[in-house]
């Protein structure tokens, strides 16, 4: 069983734990295995390239401690701060389980059936030949899941939405697009100014400059955040026009800044999940610039999904108005640099 961002077993664990606050716990969930981080699997494969040729040999590779599939789900839930209720059931056959997985996860039922059938029997490492012949020391399940989560976050930060999504305009689907566990609202607007001018209002966003649309709604959101113990809307920003990674901007935190190209903010208000606001500016063919504004949300369970879809109608005019406000301010800046 391989644990790593993008691996099928990790995708299945993530989907089950994040979407189901009450989890059915069939017998196969308690079957023990020796899960191994995908990075360690690759390290084994790389080291074999330097091994001398000789007789064929079979190695068992796995993590340092036996863990059940349920144990993997428990550890993922712990690291994500999720609480899940188990209901043990003795009657979920591999076929029924595969249909269930097909309904609640991105895994097709026929693939889920193969996975479940493979989990009916223990797959625990029973000899240490790999530890004797290789220098690899696999990490435990806690570290493997931590790495997978970190890598998942890195991949999302590196994503260029101008490539990942259509640049034709607003996202057409109700509720946005799903990328892994995240929900994305991405929209673009074209402006007849160069990228350096287009980026100025983005770099100045928040604080005294405001959010370019629905300022009273943002203040209400900040007040609500304070009521539940959040940071609220009172922090402002360190500097009116300069930003650095780690700076606070109202109830956001600067996670990435690429001058005249990209600004990524991580939400620090109280949310049933994690949120980001991403701005990207690129030159447009024929002159001018294209500004892309992307809101991302990584929901924590069903309440997180309910939150996203319940505020989606509000997003339609708030985020659209913000993007229009950025474009209008960019044109003003280009016409009058003192603006």
Automatic annotation (TrEMBL):
<dbReference type="InterPro" id="IPR021295">
    <property type="entry name" value="DUF2867"/>
</dbReference>
<dbReference type="Pfam" id="PF11066">
    <property type="entry name" value="DUF2867"/>
</dbReference>
<dbReference type="InterPro" id="IPR036291">
    <property type="entry name" value="NAD(P)-bd_dom_sf"/>
</dbReference>
<protein>
    <submittedName>
        <fullName>Oxidoreductase</fullName>
    </submittedName>
</protein>
């Amino acid at each position: 069983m391989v644990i790593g961002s993008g691996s099928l077993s990790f995708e299945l664990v993530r989907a089950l734990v994040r979407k189901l606050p009450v989890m059915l716990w069939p017998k196969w969930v308690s079957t023990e295995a020796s899960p191994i981080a995908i990075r360690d699997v690759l390290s084994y494969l790389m080291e074999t390239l330097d091994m001398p040729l000789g007789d064929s040999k079979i190695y068992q590779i796995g993590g340092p401690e036996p863990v059940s599939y349920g144990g993997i789900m428990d550890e993922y839930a712990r690291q994500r701060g999720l609480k899940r209720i188990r209901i043990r059931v003795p009657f979920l056959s591999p076929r029924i389980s595969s249909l269930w997985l097909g309904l609640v996860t991105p895994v097709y039922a026929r693939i889920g059936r193969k996975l479940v059938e493979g989990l009916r029997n223990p797959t625990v490492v029973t000899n240490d030949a790999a530890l004797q012949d290789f220098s690899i020391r696999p990490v435990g399940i806690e570290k493997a899941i931590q790495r997978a989560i970190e890598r998942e976050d890195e991949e999302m930060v590196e994503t260029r939405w101008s490539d990942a999504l259509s640049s034709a305009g607003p996202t057409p689907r109700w509720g946005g697009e799903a990328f892994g566990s995240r929900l994305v609202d991405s929209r673009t607007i074209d402006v007849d100014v160069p990228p350096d001018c287009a980026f100025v209002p983005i770099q100045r966003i928040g604080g005294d400059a405001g959010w370019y649309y629905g300022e009273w709604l943002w203040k209400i959101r900040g007040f609500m955040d304070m009521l539940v113990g959040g940071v609220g809307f009172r922090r402002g920003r360190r500097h009116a026009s300069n930003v650095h990674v780690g700076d606070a901007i109202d109830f956001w935190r600067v996670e990435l800044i690429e001058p005249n190209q990209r600004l990524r903010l991580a939400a620090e208000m109280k949310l049933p999940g994690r949120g980001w606001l991403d701005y990207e500016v690129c030159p447009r063919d024929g002159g001018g610039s294209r500004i892309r504004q992307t809101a991302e949300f990584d929901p924590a369970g069903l309440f997180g999904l309910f939150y996203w879809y319940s505020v989606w109608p509000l997003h339609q005019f708030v985020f659209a108005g913000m993007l229009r406000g950025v474009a209008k301010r960019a044109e003003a800046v280009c016409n009058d640099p003192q603006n």
